[in-house]
Amino acid sequence: MFSDKHKTAGVAYPQGFTAAGVRAGIKKNGNLDVALIYTERTAAVAGVFTQNLVAAAPVHLSKIVVGTGTAHAIVANAGCANACTGEQGVRDAEKMAQVAADALGCRQDDVIVASTGLIGSYLPMDKMEAGIKDAAQKLSKDGSVNAGNAIITTDTYSKACATEIEIGGKEIRFGAIAKGSGMICPSMATMLCFITTDADIDQNLLQEALRDANKVSFNMITVDGDMSTNDSVVVLANGAAGNKKIVTKDTDYEKFSDTLKTICIELAKRIAADGEGATKFLTINVTGAKSFEDAKQVGMAVANSPLCKTAFFGENFNPGRVICAVGYSGVQISPSEVVIKFGGVPVYADGVMPDVDKDAMKKILAEHDIVIDVDINEGNDAATIYTSDLSYRYIAVNAEYVS
Amino acid sequence: MFSDKHKTAGVAYPQGFTAAGVRAGIKKNGNLDVALIYTERTAAVAGVFTQNLVAAAPVHLSKIVVGTGTAHAIVANAGCANACTGEQGVRDAEKMAQVAADALGCRQDDVIVASTGLIGSYLPMDKMEAGIKDAAQKLSKDGSVNAGNAIITTDTYSKACATEIEIGGKEIRFGAIAKGSGMICPSMATMLCFITTDADIDQNLLQEALRDANKVSFNMITVDGDMSTNDSVVVLANGAAGNKKIVTKDTDYEKFSDTLKTICIELAKRIAADGEGATKFLTINVTGAKSFEDAKQVGMAVANSPLCKTAFFGENFNPGRVICAVGYSGVQISPSEVVIKFGGVPVYADGVMPDVDKDAMKKILAEHDIVIDVDINEGNDAATIYTSDLSYRYIAVNAEYVS
Which residue range forms the structural domain that includes residue B149? Predict the structure, then answer.
């Protein structure tokens, strides 16, 4: 579904979309740092944003754009979060939108704005302005790779995907780019992710589909439990595919919604796998819960436990830390009813830790991808959390990351 | 108040108490690993224990002993937590109490039991039995240092203190030993701490004084946000001081209660300062909250944030991570009303980060002890949290800690 060709096409894969990423000199290392995504055809827009009360200026602005229902462009930068920047930050975010609008021939409130990087410093607006103008010149169907690279910070690779489905005989395309990889935590609209599609869909349904997709994807990953000030997931749907407009929750909507979910889960998994300093990708399946929320709470307790994360980093067999986290998650459980498996092998059941084949377990723990099953046997609901381990490199990245 | 002489005297400082610590071969490194504290005179006993639903066998047993209202001894071991050990674990904990009771000439339900170390393995009961008998032989007024060393695991030093107050013309002595230093987190009765006093006090008042002291001490520290299966704080009061028994909440009770609080805060701070891999001791004062709980929640969000902790480890000036954690703490705040100070210097106010003297700030961040003030300006309540930073050594300790 997500071939390398698709990855390269990214957000410019759907009809009518172009993208660019340029060097504006905002990142100190001189890498690409300003991204632009554009559709001449007016797109329905939906967005979910950080629930952090200390939200960055671009988040406030983009919420207003989503409120208008339509947009033509997304402008984003890495290297400076434009958060905790007061009135000047708001003016700078507005200026970003205005410069993009002028270069593209649309209105300021047609432009979604996003920033990521260090909190508390001001955007260098002269560099920003030149960068946005440069990006507008460079917009192309091949620009998604650069756009993807322009929004990453401590990510070790850019996350992108694209795919297509058929609705009513028409090919509907989707493309997306996303970035992690610190300040990643649940119960919010996580990090930056920009999704494009040429589907024709009612804006309210688009927002609902995004909210549903976000709930089982970006809100189910955690790297360090820290919720960012800048998280934004935005989808633009420009209708260029010419499908019969999706206006009710029919099978077309289901198909659209499922695809959006698949894309969001795929990118969320990649963000977790590329968590700062990650050497492992951990999937935590919690089953037997009384509600989705309970299952998520149990899974998040395990996923955010530094002791569990360091044990997996060290490839140590330490199921005690997992059951310990389950026990303090705040969800009512009965210790003797809980069953925990690593890589399908029971490691905790009936209140004790059964003997395991040490060689087989060593192999499971040596894998990059490890599945942890936690059945709490209290009900029928389930949730899956994705996370990374906690390694020396997380400390290195975060003790030394200043800009 | 807590001199080195006092520290050495520890739990054997109050009249009528003796202590011992011996090598039983439970710790793989051959260090002291079985501790015994004894009072021939019957002591009122109070205890607070982990709220983790997966509580260890000794915790269940000790709660029963506290329920009887009196005790004569505490037996504890490090190197094995006797947690997730099912029926056999319960029998082993009972056996520990029985062996101690036989050696001391008291009843099994006169003996508090505690264990700390790896979760999921069974106690080597032959070694344990020999160790407890050995410890009973070695009980002395000089035994507290060994007892303190016998309960530590990844701690880099033993925590002990002692002091005295006067109540109604009588000298009342207090002594305590405690251990950390991983799986340390709020909202529970944290880690192991054993307190002795020769005060004569009603058992219900003793329990209330301990609960109050615990609330502002052990429940206000966090190292890694992980809540242990074995945390226990127990106080024995044997009445040997001969004071008029404290039976109401009079000024004598206040004096007693204040001293207990001071001891618990002192030991809690030392546990936080000796958190696994700690290179910094962070005090987070949250003021201007609508309630103590709100203040604590804001402080804990900062204290448990890996991004904040690594920034302090790296001596990086990064107030953005602190205001970010305040913003996602779940407590209602207004970003422009919050004032944050590092070492007394404002670093966030009016929604932005004011310019700071970089050299002065560098000096503040280079200190071992750093005070972070967070005034959320919403009300009049306050709370103080103690924590450590997050360093490479935390990873080393926990990725490699198996026994």
Answer: 4-273
B235 lies in the same domain as B287 = no
Domain holding B286: CATH number? 3.10.20.340
User: Scanning every residue of chain B, which has its alpha carbon at the shortest distance from the alpha carbon of A399?
Assistant: B314
Q: For A135-154, b where at least 16 C-beta lie within 10 A, e where not — what string?
A: bbebbeeebbbbbbbbbbbb
Q: Which residues have a Cβ under 8 Å from the Cβ of A198 and sit 6 or more positions away?
A: A14, A15, A16, A17, A172, A173, A237, A238, A239, A240, A241
| Annotated catalytic residue A190 | yes
User: B338 to chain A, minimum CA–CA distance in Å?
Assistant: 10
Same domain, B12 and B158: yes
User: How do the residues of chain A divide into helix, strand and coil, expressed in percent and rounded to 5?
Assistant: 40, 25, 35
| Nearest chain A residue (CA) to B400 | A314
Question: Please, are residues B42 and B80 in contact by the beta-carbon 8 Å criterion?
Answer: no
Domain boundary among B215, B242, B273: B273
Q: B285 to chain A nearest CA, in Å? A: 20
Q: Please tell me which residue in B190, B196, B197, B229 is annotated as part of the active site.
A: B190
pTM of the model: 0.81
Give the C-alpha distances (Å, rounded to integers) separating B84 from A103, A300, A335: 65, 21, 8
Q: Are B94 and B65 in contact (CB under 8 A)?
A: no
- Do B127 and B214 fall into the same domain? yes
pLDDT at position B185 over 70: no
| Residue where a domain stops, chosen among A273, A304, A328 | A273
For residues B78 and B163, membership in a common domain is answered with yes
CA distance, residue A162 to nearest chain B CA (Å): 32
Q: How far is CA A273 from CA A147, A222, A279, in A?
A: 21, 10, 8
B141-179: per-residue pLDDT in tens?
A: 999 999 999 998 878 888 899 999 999 899 999 999 998
Express each pLDDT in B15-54 by its tens digit: 999 999 999 999 988 999 999 999 999 999 999 888 888 8
pLDDT higher than 60, residue B188: no
Q: Are residues B42 and B121 in the same domain?
A: yes
Separation in Å, CA B222 to CA B206, B270, B276, B389: 25, 12, 11, 10
Judgement on whether residues A149 and A226 belong to the same structural domain of the protein: yes
CA B374 from centre of chain: 24
ipTM of the complex: 0.76
| Digitized pLDDT (tens) for each residue of chain A, 403 residues in all | 677 778 899 999 999 999 999 999 999 889 999 999 999 999 999 998 888 888 889 999 999 999 999 999 999 999 998 988 999 999 999 999 999 999 999 999 999 999 998 888 899 999 999 999 999 999 999 999 999 999 988 788 888 999 999 998 999 999 999 987 655 543 333 478 899 999 999 999 999 999 999 988 888 887 665 666 777 889 999 999 999 999 999 999 999 999 999 999 988 888 888 877 889 999 999 999 999 999 999 999 999 888 899 999 999 898 988 998 898 898 999 999 999 999 999 999 999 999 999 999 999 999 999 999 999 999 999 999 999 898 888 788 777 654 3
Distance CA B51, CA B228 (A): 9
> SS3 string of B38-104?
EEEEEEEEEEEECCCCCCCHHHHHHHHHHHHCEEEEEEEEECECCCCEHHHHHHHHHHHHHHHHHHH
Residues of B in contact with A320 (CB under 8 A): 81, 83-84, 118-120, 229
Q: Are residues B301 and B218 in the same domain?
A: no
Q: How many CA atoms lie within 13 A of B313 on its CB side?
A: 30
CB contact under 8 A, A316 and B401: yes
Q: What is the CATH number of the domain that holds B255?
A: 3.60.70.12
Identify whether residues B170 and B295 lie together within a single domain.
no
Total count of domains within chain B? 2
